[in-house]
Design brief:
There is one protein chain. With 438 residues, the protein is of the alpha+beta class. It folds into 2 domains: 6-99, OB fold (Dihydrolipoamide Acetyltransferase, E2P), CATH 2.40.50.140; 127-426, Bira Bifunctional Protein, Domain 2 (BirA Bifunctional Protein, domain 2, 2-Layer Sandwich). The chain contains 11 helices and 18 strands. It has helices at residues 56-63, 117-122, 124-127, 131-153, 192-200, 240-270, 286-297, 311-325, 373-382, 390-393, 410-418, and strands at residues 16-28, 32-39, 42-49, 70-79, 88-99, 157-158, 164-165, 177-180, 183-187, 205-213, 226-235, 283-285, 329-333, 346-347, 350-351, 353-358, 361-368, 403-409. The strands form 4 sheets. The protein has an 8-stranded mixed β-sheet, sandwiched between helices. It has a 5-stranded antiparallel β-sheet with strand order 3-2-1-4-5. Helix 4 runs antiparallel to helix 6.
């Protein structure tokens, strides 16, 4: 007999089915036993009448059953309007305990206040059983699917690049060094070099969804040492404006899909309205933004951050975008070359790239890349990069079309989408300076 998901049971009234799931609750009364079974799709009541002789073994089994044990149940689905849970119940003919849980859980995962975040991370496999956490990953999965679908519909090729690399010089971020036989290697900070190699190979449009690693000793609500990055690169562009246009179209499409499928659920569980953005998103140059933040909010960018942004500036930028444009999204352009990677194309000594700010946080750094070998080589030398990027520079010696791209952090995007306070909640397993288990 094929296992039926609980949310499909209303299609099987008066039929025998088999369900599997966790024991969510037990009510053992004088004349009847009620068991609530939970699977990923929902919950259902199983009802056992104690007075019926045929149920003797079932009653004895339930007497010993513990919460969060897993069971396989065979029975008849009955429509029962008096049952508050979905107006149905299962009358079982057989119950099999497939695994038995300890009587007391480390914490009550149904009560978010019952444990601090670190305890929840220690027992993440239990924490993830909550309806809220299950919903987070259903929504995140659909978000990634929607972005993938958009790119597939636009003839992108999905690639898979190596995460063990020979150079540590892709960006200014710290890297993890690992032993590699008799040599050393590094965990990739991004697939940037290899995305561009694919463009030089004639793939034209590529993307990847994969882990990236940053050895930054940062303990904030928005950083992690390992995260999932949604990267893309495409060619034959005229300027970084083409890159911004693609990103705003990608996000418009994906958020519309999310709103259609999960908008009501997100509002119910997380209290957040999904706003499908209007395109084009507003754009502003960094120096003009500084002036607006100073004039409107009396905010001056700290000396160390001039030419770039910081967390406070990002929050105020969203406030400005909403007040001035009625938009949750805003592109910021014209950053200092000292704050951008060597492979960003420059025009009049200004990097041809942008940051995208959403709901008070940067979600993307994108750019047109420098594809001309001599200029790229000079910009690498200017940053003090030599032998470490020699293999990368080879990609551009034999012809490479103008191109650009960007990356989105899936975990951060999910956090902002659902209005969650911490990145830890949107990652299946969080990794940070003090977190390497489970």
């Amino acid at each position: 007999m094929k296992k039926i998901n609980i949310d499909q049971l209303n299609q099987y009234y008066n039929q025998e089915v088999e369900i599997c799931g966790f024991v969510d609750n037990i009510r053992n009364l004088q004349w009847v036993q009620f068991i609530i079974i939970r699977d990923r799709s929902g919950k259902v009541q199983v009802t056992i009448e104690k007075s019926e002789e045929k149920n003797k073994e079932l009653v004895e089994l339930v007497d010993k059953l513990t919460l969060e044990s897993t069971v396989k149940i065979k029975g008849i689905v009955m429509e029962s309007p008096k049952v508050k849970l979905n107006g149905m119940e299962i009358i079982p003919s057989n119950i099999e305990i497939t695994s038995k849980s300890e009587i007391e859980l480390p914490f009550n995962y149904k009560n978010p206040e019952s444990a601090n975040i670190d305890t929840k991370m220690d027992y993440r496999f239990i924490d993830l059983r909550s309806e809220k956490n299950t919903a987070i990953f259903q929504i995140q999965s659909f978000l990634v699917k929607s972005m993938r679908d958009f790119l597939y519909n636009n003839n992108f090729i999905e690639i898979h690049t190596p995460k063990l690399i020979a150079t540590a010089s892709e960006s200014g971020s710290e890297v993890f060094e690992v032993k590699y036989f008799n040599d050393k290697a590094y965990l990739a900070q991004s697939p940037q070099f290899y995305k561009q190699m694919a463009i030089a190979s004639g793939f034209e449009k590529v993307f990847e969804v994969a882990p990236a690693f940053r050895a930054e000793n940062s303990n904030t609500n928005r950083h992690t040492t390992e995260f999932t990055s949604f990267d893309l690169e495409f060619c034959d562009i005229d300027s970084y404006e083409d890159v911004m246009q693609l990103e705003e179209q990608l996000l418009e499409y994906s958020l519309k899909e999310i709103k259609n499928k999960y908008g009501e659920k997100i509002k119910s569980i997380f209290g957040v309205d999904i706003v499908v953005p209007k395109v084009p998103f507003p754009r502003i140059k960094l120096q003009d933004l500084y002036q607006e933040l100073s004039k409107r909010y009396n905010y001056e960018i700290p000396t160390d951050d001039i030419g770039d942004m910081n967390a406070e500036a990002e929050k105020l930028t969203t406030k400005f975008a909403m007040e001035e444009y009625g938009s949750e999204f805003i592109f910021v352009t014209d950053f200092s070359k000292t704050k951008r990677a060597f492979y960003h194309m420059r025009k009049d000594d200004i990097p041809q790239g942008y940051d995208l700010i959403w709901r008070g946080m940067e979600i993307t750094t994108g750019a047109q890349r420098e594809h001309r070998y001599d200029i790229l080589k000079n910009q690498a030398q200017e940053k003090g990069l030599g032998k470490d990027v020699k293999f990368y520079l080879e990609f551009f010696k034999y012809g490479c079309p103008p191109h650009g791209g960007f990356a989105l952090g899936v975990d951060r995007l999910t956090m902002l989408l659902l209005g969650l306070p911490n990145l830890k909640e949107t990652m299946f397993l969080f990794r940070g300076p003090n977190r390497l288990n489970p």
